[in-house]
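Q: Hand in one record:
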Amino acid sequence: MTVLAHQSDTLTRDALAVLQPGFEGTTAPAWLLRRVGEGLTAVGLFGRNIASPEQLAALTAQLRAERDDVLVAIDEEGGDVTRLEVRGGSSFPGNLALGAVDDTGLTRDVARELGRRLAECGVNLNWAPSADVNSNPDNPVIGVRSFGADTHLAARHTAAYVEGLQASGVAACTKHFPGHGDTSVDSHHALPRIDVDLDTLQARELIPFKAAIEAGTKAVMSAHILVPALDPTRPATLSPQILTGLLRKELGYEGLIVTDGMEMNAIAGTYGIERGSVLAIAAGADAICVGGGLADEATVLRLRDALVAAVREGTLPEERLADAAARVRELAAWTLRARPDARPEGSRASGIGLTAARRALAVTGAPGPLSAPYVATLTPVANIAVGDETPWGVAAELASLLPGTEAGAYPEGAPAADILAAAGDRTVVAVVRDAHRHAWMAEAVEALVAARPDTVVVEMGLPRAEPRGALHIATHGASRVCGRAAAEVIAGA
């Protein structure tokens, strides 16, 4: 059944208001503008929607011509997860690099500068930062997106990030509540489960979220994870005990609760997006994020109609939907009132990302004389949050410093002998990402170092393996500026 949308239909407008959908293209399609006019209050942007800052500013202006307080959201963590610079790599290091430096002033300044760039383009809601404590080093989806494995370090940097971002007039959305760090499954693919007791959750996972709430985070994103100590049957996104009981009542959070992407298989593959969305709003969520994979008008209408039907059938209280819509509109109103403070002065602002990346390096050994090395990048399959569109590594940056540098990419299964043959008599620079999680990668590095003791190793993921090679550089992330900082060390620049 299709429910016709009329401007006087409060229920339909509320159902549209709680959706944060995506779309295809670099301009706003007619159907999206029409739905914004009918009550849709938020839109989500992804890498496919962004070609340049100028184009993005024009796109957001299109949306605001329909509704001046529209929430324009983006998944811009900086570091490995970037949408603003999806085709070239981020100008900012990610959370792990900032945690490695452990200077909350630096984290605050990085977030403020990132927020300033988003605000300049008309983006006013950022689905960041990740407050997850990376307590499981084998986690396939968090890793360098976390500030680290230390709870209190993660808490103080989460708070600093929230403060910096919101000082630029961009609302922070702290994620993934109640904490995605101790999982071994990627919720894009299946439903992860965290089997720890309540005391552990209180002492570890929840501390950074409490810090974010105290710092005034405007939004919190729920995780599609099962936490039996809190709710033995439903994932956090669909759990009244977790969203209303824990987040609202126990932690006293009054801001917007946003779901993670509802088309992720942890929800779509178990409940379906329509039923999942109804259950999420009923559980206490205020906004439904969808659009990473399903980005068309039909998806918006399916979810709108499912919410309206649930109210009319009595399975979703009308007051709960109205409360959710009111919270969305309240945040939209805040974005109109918010005014950024002064940007950091001089080079602290313009070069803050590279400055932070340089400070985050952990260097073991010393660079030998290099002229034109051979860069071998060992490439794992990227997780969905990071994506495979964004380039990473040190090859391009090193080539700009050492002309004549050559490079090759090597997937799982490529023997070290192939790298050595391609390198010839050049020094090998082996670039890896989470070598501790990929046995083939670690074996290749061992073989390269055994054959060529002068090999340089650059670890751009979580640095868990022992340093190898004549020079070992841990960058704590794979953003463009992390690659640049490593290249400078290798080249002796």
In short: The first helix runs from residue 10 to 17. Confidence is low (pLDDT under 50) at residues 1-8, 342-348. The CA atoms of residues 131 and 175 lie 6 Å apart. The chain has 18 helices and 14 strands.
